Amino acid sequence: MKCILLIACLVLSTPGAMCQTQPPASAGSYSGKVVETMNAASYTYVLLDTGITKLWAAAPQFAVKVGDSVGIANATPMPKFHSKTLNRDFEVVYFTGSVKVNGKAPASGDALELPKNHPPLGGGGAKPAVDFSGIKKAEGGKSIAEIYAAKAELSGKPVKVRGKVVKYNANIMGKNWLHIQDGTGTAGSNDLTVTTASETKVGDTILVTGAIATDRDFGSGYKYSLIIEDAKVTVE
User: pTM of whole model > 0.90?
Assistant: First the structure.
């Protein structure tokens, strides 16, 4: 099993101890020097100095020391992560299946239970094709491609859109986060992010009703040029 790496700009919950660093603008590839390290339960924690900011990282226990270089790739953000062992709240945690110490991958650790609501790790092989043949545009609504094409004029206005859930993360920042597609559009204009209080699952066909928002920055690496927030979702 690949090591599971958690990357975070940490906000300490203990009084008087606040991490003043800022999280990266987006998930991706990062590297830095280890300036602090500690083991807690089954994890090794390291504080990385990238030269621009400092990032807390944690992975299943591996050999590392102050001064080592650590690099990660394909990181996925998970905001508001709480470590029970350390009794600390992370402003954002970046998950990845790719980590190197001094240019080499550490030995694989034992399989560990992932944290609740852990996003899927990248690099898990090709995803099966999704069948959108039964998706019909909502009556009086728009397709995802049409929403992207007219996003400037639709900003702040309600829309209806039907699509299939291709990604679902529950209870992040108090909301459920969906990605839907309907087979229209191309890369960059075929996937629509939706936040809602409703529960659904990957593969569901849903009708979404809500207002379009553009250029939304929630912090912690969550930036969206187009999103429907607090939507009404009906599973069909």
Answer: no
